[in-house]
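hey team, just a heads up i'm posting the complex here instead of the shared drive bc the drive is being weird again. everything in one block, sequence lines first with there labels, then the predicted structure for the whole assembly after. its two chains so it's a bit long, scroll down
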Amino acid sequence: MKTNFADGLASFGSAMSATKKAYRKRPEEAAATMRRLARAMLGVQEVLAAPDLEKICRMVVNGKDDELPELAAVLIDVAAKRVAALAAERAVVLIVDDDPVIGHLLNIRLRSPSREIVIATTAAEAADILQHRLISLVTLDLGLPDRDGRDVLSEIRLSGAEPPPPVIVLSALEEPHVKTECFALGADEYFAKPVDIDLLATVVSAKLQRISEIGRKLRRDPLTGALNRFSFSEVFVRNSAYMARAGGDHSIAILDLDHFKLVNDTYGHGMGDEVLRRTAAVLDASLRKSDALARWGGEEFAVLFPGTNCAGGAKSLECIAEDLSKTVFTSSTGKTFNVTFSAGVAPVASGATIEAAIAVADALLYRAKHLGRNRICRADQENGS
Amino acid sequence: MNSQDANTPGASSAGNPPVDLVWLKECTDDDLDAMKAMVELYLARTTTQLSELDAAIAADSASDVRRIAHACVGSSGTCGMNGMSQIFKRLEKMGASGKLIDAAPIAAEARAEFERVKLFVAEKVAN
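-- predicted structure starts here --
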């Protein structure tokens, strides 16, 4: 489960599903298995980092026998959603090679459910992909038809992508200085053609594993699992470049939890953290895969809605507000409460910087607060809803 | 590299089969469909490249001969077409030296070896 959490979680889901079916015939044995599976899941770091998954696992572990089929169904559902979300975070391997034979071989040997393989046959094609997509790893042939692969290598290193994708050079050039030059230009590995494909596949897996561990820490807010400001800005820039070519509307929102200071002061910071975690989970569950969610500040979240205008973005937030209103928080003393949020939704003009777009959304958020909180103000309808 | 029976269809005069089938199977992880697809791609690409080589030799363009032969060395080696790979290496060296005097007979040798590859593939891989 440690090497590939998505695959591991999917198999836990299948096992739980099979056990749930067996419950009718042998309830006691099935109940024990369900608890054992849930307990095993709680031993996995990534489960503990996902509040909704952790919570339902604990409920299964502590549930009464007759409650277990229903709880197991919820666990299977939550796990399936998490697997889908992880699939959306698949590693993207860019193969740059003009030889279709080698491209085909690399594709069949490097592909896996947790990876997407993208092939570029020219330096220009590779540059275009690198500009518009977040690439996890590159295999680079030096003999490209339009430019020398060494130029592409330099460009990848100068692009400033964080974390920079590892580059594995594959070359049939035999001159020793070429290898030295590639390492000097920032190559991580150098394979001579014909490539030892088994070794290459192992090296790619090891590098992707490391990138995924480092990348997650770099990209995500540790408390809520939402993107941090830095990676949200990166997503914004990539999206802007894409929208400039593809056209269409897109919008951005800033959300702020109402009276959050009161939650902290009344129930303690631990409860405040729990509110932030679960609010992020509610947001995450309702947003589309193409939307981006970030923790923008203390109790502020930012959402980017690609291909969606202000009205569409606001509508999506209204559904989330309704979901959040149904979320009940229970303090350590047993008191229950709900939270609400205020939000501002602004359009993102073509070529606008993230600072400019956020500034407009922020002004609308301020208006929503001023008008009495628990409402959404959008640029084309300033009085809020 | 694997050695096989010299009576294998398409075996070269040196006795070595033109395709290292064991290498080919291993590198495609024993996936027969993937192996067939890879060989088809190789045959199509090499057919084009052999014509390009002839044109480059006729135009006395050493740099083009070097570039095309270099690409052929890569894909031939990757597919376990060892005989092809060796011939293309000679052509690549010739292109690098700038002297193409003996290039035409070597290109003809490549074509003959390619015919052996096709025969071998039709017998051992395609079915």
